[in-house]
């Protein structure tokens, strides 16, 4: 809350103190937040008998073979193949969601059409039904379309704006924009399409970047959908492969599973780091002067 | 479905400055909507209709469904004590996890908003836990931290929270709260969208930081706060993955983390009572729909949309 | 950024009527090309890149979608074969399948696998969607459900290809339902008391007698656990009360069974109450693991009290017990399950997993041939070893015995002490059992967390079990 204060000449000193206190607070919070992550990293280097049972953060010795096993991939499928597959699916999903959700959101937020209220309510309602209940009907549809064991069931829904979460997200952002923007554009003779692409879309960029980041991470980690629709191991993803190290009915390899988790984490870390920059270049300083 | 209504932004749109044939603009709307319409009909409406039908049958995944009328629903409400345990656990979870997660996300987003140095670093670091999702490895870490003799026990002498029926739910809620990155990023994006001039003007008027927060930040951020509130509430009602991972799918100890969708999954895919599971899903949809409708109703009094007024802050 | 937006606005002013718009865009494009470095034009170029990406993605996806189902591709019959297991089993299975493809060049086998829990859900979804794989690995508990749901083919129709003459008849019968052979067992396993011999010795206990020397009764077992607890301070065993499998062994030791032949409950509330009173009493004494430890069980050895160093023995199936080797540095030993008071053995040789064929497969003969190969071929057996349990084919079992390594050898020796002493296995449990297995754990959780008495919980369980078996 203090963060909203901007320094004025007379009170520079207390503000500096505040800033230091803020940093200290943030760092303390981070220490707590990142401790489980450190645990995850440390566990990926623990020998087998310490992975589950040990209650110490640090391994007794570094077990690099966990990583060697993980990097060997699974069942003749190399880690690089798994990585490529994961990237293809997550990349396709990002493209699909950003395109289709922003289109639908614009219509809901800015355009008038019949049944808009009921349709919007329906869209929100689609988030409310637990997806396990529609899993089998959806599987049957994709099976009928001959899409099982392809990436279509993982990507096509994103191009059809089925993730109402993101439609709703972008709607909320678009409604935050003053209407005069388009009115001005309309006076200039821009139709809805040009207003959308030239006026609204650039201003919604924080929401679009947010959509891209979340879609990437959530698709990446979405174990169940990948499990159901992918059959051949050469189409498997990192997320699927890391689970295959664990089989409750035979012997599991928890060490390599943790190592694979860390490996699978790297691409999403990089993606996040690359794209979160764009969140900063928001519209805060440019101002919306109508 | 639900009685949810969009707060009509038509208020200003009623008198568009430049008149265009209505039909043309309606046509444009449908062009924008076309992917969504296709997806909604094929991949959402159809499966939803099927699951609604199945909820009145004894479908068991393997044999063709037989119509049983309301039996699944009456069984759920009158004969299944575990169902009510799952309802209780879910409500407790919603009440604990949603305010904590949103509060934390908002506080951190505000703290980072005007930070000049290190903002990108903090944002990334605070988001880091959310990158993991609720995978099996995270669940195992969680178990280790909250187990007897684990870090939390050593620091606070709590004992093995994760396997105490009274506390296990709290550890699952903490896992969700810990991954507050998504609402935080959405808050931050929303804060970015607030025009800087508003603060400059307030500064000139000599408004205090707190005053600016109340009269600029809150109203300008309200659509995003509302979004986060609605979505996190819906997601909390449907909490599945963290509980599934932490309890290994069982919802233990002693059913204390047997959340609604976890029990639904158990009925549908472990016990193969897909008809019953579908009925559970529709009851949940109606409950969430009602809660969301209430949220939308109240939103009219506190959510401010820039597009609804003539511009600027009230 | 501000400059960028302002430019947007000026450009917006150039928008003409709807008809002019296209011309505008064309002009923009030329402008974009001439001022490649300017910020503005990049947007439309980015849009073009995005569109191109979409097209490329579609192309890539179409290229990826290979042949599906059991339709023949390029004159070859394509079989889909799925199983659950760990990477080691996957590697061995793949090697055997490769050999099969070499021997039968007209068949292509597409394989897939997952961990057990994931596999179960995936297979159920596939079966419900009418898309079951041609050849699938099945658990004892799945057979009734899949067979009665019409998912499985009667393998009796493929007798000419799939030979079962060398199988133990009792084990083979477990894959039968209503006289039809819906699945054939691949390997056999049995339950065992896994213990840490070093710690037992330190506690002054003699290792339990093996079955050929008479084994031990449940009371003798409980006494041994009490000694362990007294000497080491640690619980002697995992609380067996949560395990439907252990309960079944206890029940069979008294001449009863979990289910009757016509798929009804084979025991009463009183029986279950006695079992839970017995285990709950041991738990209260601290002789078996406390509720907080017991509830952590998830099927993996790592999460058992023995695996975590919180108890000194565990009841488990013999094959997964190999996982303890990595966790207990001094090694482990296997003892038989306790028997009834009169020495009636409760444990039995259970088929550890089955193979079945989808009823709607396009090539039943080739599917049966694959199963025959996996179970009866000498070379395949050499590759597979005991990865799915000790082989059911008796001559293969003898043949691979000298080749077995490490823990497989221990299991083979353990099973040899039981040979000829155990009753025939029961037929596959009714379909409701897969749900009841977790219900059993849940209801016992209520007992061990002291929220219900053994009798109350037993009543709950029996009520639910009866309802489950009726439906």
Q: What does this entry look like structurally?
A:
Chain A: InterPro entries: MetI-like, MetI-like_sf. Chain A: It holds the Pfam family BPD_transp_1. Chain A: Keywords: Cell membrane, Membrane, Transmembrane, Transmembrane helix, Transport. The complex is a heterotrimer of chains A (290), B (314) and C (471). Chain A is an all-alpha fold and 290 residues long. Chain A has two domains: 2-69, no CATH class; 75-280, MetI-like fold (Orthogonal Bundle), CATH 1.10.3720. Helix content of chain A is 67%, strand content 0%. Chain A contains 14 helices and no strands. The longest helix of chain A has 32 residues, at 12-43. In chain B, helix 9 (181-193) crosses helix 11 (209-237). In chain B, 70% of the residues lie in helices and 0% in strands. Chain B is mainly α and 314 residues long. With 471 residues, chain C is α+β, with helices and mostly antiparallel strands. Chain C has two domains: 77-188 and 351-418, 3-Layer(aba) Sandwich (D-Maltodextrin-Binding Protein, domain 2); 191-347 and 432-470, D-Maltodextrin-Binding Protein, domain 2 (3-Layer(aba) Sandwich), CATH 3.40.190. Chain C contains 19 helices and eleven strands. Chain C has a six-stranded mixed β-sheet. A three-stranded antiparallel β-sheet of chain C has the order 8-7-9, with helices on one face. In chain C, strand 4 (176-177) and strand 5 form a beta hairpin. The model of chain C is unreliable at 1-71 (pLDDT under 50). Chains in contact: A-B, A-C, B-C. At the A-B interface, helix 1, helix 4, helix 5, helix 6 and helix 8 of A face helix 1, helix 2, helix 4, helix 5 and helix 6 of B.
């Amino acid at each position: 809350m203090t963060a909203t204060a901007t320094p004025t000449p007379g009170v520079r000193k207390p503000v500096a103190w505040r800033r230091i206190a803020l940093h200290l607070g943030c760092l303390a919070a981070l220490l707590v937040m990142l401790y489980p992550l450190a645990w995850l990293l440390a566990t990926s280097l623990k020998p087998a008998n310490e992975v589950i049972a040990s209650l110490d953060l640090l391994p007794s010795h570094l077990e690099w073979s966990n990583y060697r096993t993980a990097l060997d991939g699974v069942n003749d499928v190399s880690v690089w193949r798994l990585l490529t597959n994961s990237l293809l699916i997550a990349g396709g999903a990002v493209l699909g969601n950003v395109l289709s959700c922003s289109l639908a959101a614009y219509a809901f937020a800015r355009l008038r059409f019949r049944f808009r209220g009921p349709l919007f309510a329906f869209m929100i309602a689609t988030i409310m039904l637990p997806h396990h209940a529609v899993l089998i009907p959806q599987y049957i549809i994709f099976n009928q379309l001959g899409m099982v064991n392809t990436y279509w069931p993982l990507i096509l829904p994103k191009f059809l704006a089925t993730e109402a979460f993101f439609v709703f997200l972008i709607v909320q952002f678009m409604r935050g924009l003053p209407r005069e923007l388009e009115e001005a554009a309309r006076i200039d003779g821009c139709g809805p399409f040009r207003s959308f692409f030239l006026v609204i879309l650039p201003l919604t960029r924080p929401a679009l970047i947010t959509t891209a980041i979340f879609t990437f991470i959530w698709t990446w980690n979405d174990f169940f959908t990948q499990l159901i629709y992918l059959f051949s191991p050469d189409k498997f993803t990192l997320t699927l492969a890391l689970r295959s190290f664990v089989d409750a009915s035979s012997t599991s390899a928890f060490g390599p599973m943790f190592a694979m988790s860390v490996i699978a984490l790297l691409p999403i870390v990089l993606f996040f780091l690359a794209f979160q920059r764009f969140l900063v270049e928001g519209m805060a300083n440019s101002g919306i002067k109508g | 479905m639900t009685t949810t209504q969009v707060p009509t932004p038509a208020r200003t749109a009623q008198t568009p400055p430049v008149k265009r044939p209505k039909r043309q603009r309606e046509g444009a709307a449908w062009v924008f909507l076309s992917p969504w319409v296709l997806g909604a009909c094929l991949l959402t409406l159809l499966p939803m209709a099927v699951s609604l039908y199945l909820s009145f049958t004894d479908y068991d995944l393997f044999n063709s469904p037989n119509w049983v009328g309301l039996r699944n629903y009456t069984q759920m409400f009158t004969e299944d004590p575990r169902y009510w345990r799952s309802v209780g656990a879910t409500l407790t979870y919603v009440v604990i996890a949603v305010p904590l997660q949103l509060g934390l996300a908002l506080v951190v987003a505000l703290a980072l908003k005007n930070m000049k140095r290190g903002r990108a670093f903090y944002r990334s670091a605070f988001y880091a836990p959310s990158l993991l999702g609720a995978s099996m490895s995270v669940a195992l870490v969680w178990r280790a931290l909250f187990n007897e003799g684990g870090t939390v026990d050593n620091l606070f002498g709590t004992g093995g929270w994760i396997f105490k029926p009274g506390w296990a739910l709290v550890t699952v809620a903490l896992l969700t709260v810990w991954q507050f990155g998504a609402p935080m990023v959405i808050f931050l994006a929303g804060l970015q969208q607030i025009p800087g001039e508003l603060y400059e003007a307030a500064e000139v008027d000599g408004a205090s930081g707190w005053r600016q927060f109340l009269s600029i930040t809150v109203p300008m951020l309200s659509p995003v706060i509302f979004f986060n509130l609605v979505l996190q509430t819906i997601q909390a009602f449907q909490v599945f993955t963290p509980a599934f991972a932490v309890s290994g799918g069982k919802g233990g100890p002693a059913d204390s983390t047997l959340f609604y969708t976890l029990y639904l999954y158990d009925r549908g895919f472990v016990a193969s009572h897909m008809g019953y599971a579908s009925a559970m899903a529709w009851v949940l949809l109606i409950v969430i729909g009602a809660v969301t409708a209430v949220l939308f109703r109240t939103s009219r009094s506190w959510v401010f949309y820039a597009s609804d007024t003539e511009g600027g802050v009230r | 950024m501000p400059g960028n937006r302002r430019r947007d606005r000026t450009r917006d002013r150039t928008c003409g009527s709807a008809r002019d718009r296209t011309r505008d865009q064309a002009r923009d494009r030329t402008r974009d090309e001439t001022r490649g470095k300017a910020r503005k034009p990049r947007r439309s170029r980015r849009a073009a890149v995005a569109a191109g990406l979409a097209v490329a993605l579609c192309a890539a996806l179409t290229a990826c979608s290979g042949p599906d189902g059991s339709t023949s591709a390029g004159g070859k019959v394509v079989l889909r074969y799925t199983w659950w297991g760990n990477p080691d089993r996957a590697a061995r299975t793949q090697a055997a399948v490769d050999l099969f493809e070499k021997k039968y060049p007209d068949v292509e086998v597409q394989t897939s696998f997952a961990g057990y829990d994931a596999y179960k859900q995936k297979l159920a979804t596939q079966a419900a969607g009418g898309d079951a794989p041609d050849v699938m690995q099945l658990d004892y508990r799945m057979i009734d459900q899949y067979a009665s749901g019409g998912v499985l083919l009667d393998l009796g129709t493929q007798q000419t290809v799939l030979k079962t003459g060398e199988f133990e008849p009792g084990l083979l019968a477990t894959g039968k339902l209503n006289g039809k052979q819906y699945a054939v067992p691949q390997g056999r396993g049995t339950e065992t008391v896994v213990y840490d011999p070093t710690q037992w010795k330190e506690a002054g206990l003699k290792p339990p007698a093996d079955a050929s020397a008479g084994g031990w009764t449940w009371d003798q077992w409980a006494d041994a656990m009490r000694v362990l607890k007294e000497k080491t301070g640690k619980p002697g065993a995992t609380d067996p009360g949560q395990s439907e499998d252990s309960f079944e062994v206890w029940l069979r030791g008294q001449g009863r069974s979990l289910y009757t032949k016509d798929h009804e409950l084979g025991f009463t509330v009183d029986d279950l109450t006695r079992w839970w009173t017995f285990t709950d009493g041991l738990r209260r004494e601290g002789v078996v693991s406390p509720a907080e430890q017991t509830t952590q069980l998830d099927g993996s050895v790592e999460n058992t009290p023995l695996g975590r160093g919180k108890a000194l023995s565990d009841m488990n199936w013999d094959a997964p017990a190999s996982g303890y080797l990595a966790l207990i540095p001094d090694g482990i030993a296997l003892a038989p399950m306790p028997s009834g008071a009169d020495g009636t053995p409760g444990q039995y040789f259970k088929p550890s997993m089955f193979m079945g064929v989808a009823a709607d497969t396009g090539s039943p003969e080739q599917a049966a041939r694959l199963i025959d190969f996996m179970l009866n071929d000498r070379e395949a057996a050499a590759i597979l070893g005991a990865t799915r349990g000790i082989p059911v084919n008796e001559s293969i079992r003898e043949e691979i015995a000298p080749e077995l390594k490490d823990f497989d050898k221990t299991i083979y020796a353990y099973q040899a002490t039981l040979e000829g002493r155990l009753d025939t296995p029961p037929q596959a449990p009714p379909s409701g059992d897969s749900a009841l297995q977790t219900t059993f754990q849940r209801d016992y959780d209520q007992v061990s967390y002291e929220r219900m008495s053994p009798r109350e919980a037993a009543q709950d369980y029996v009520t639910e079990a009866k309802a489950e078996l009726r439906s």
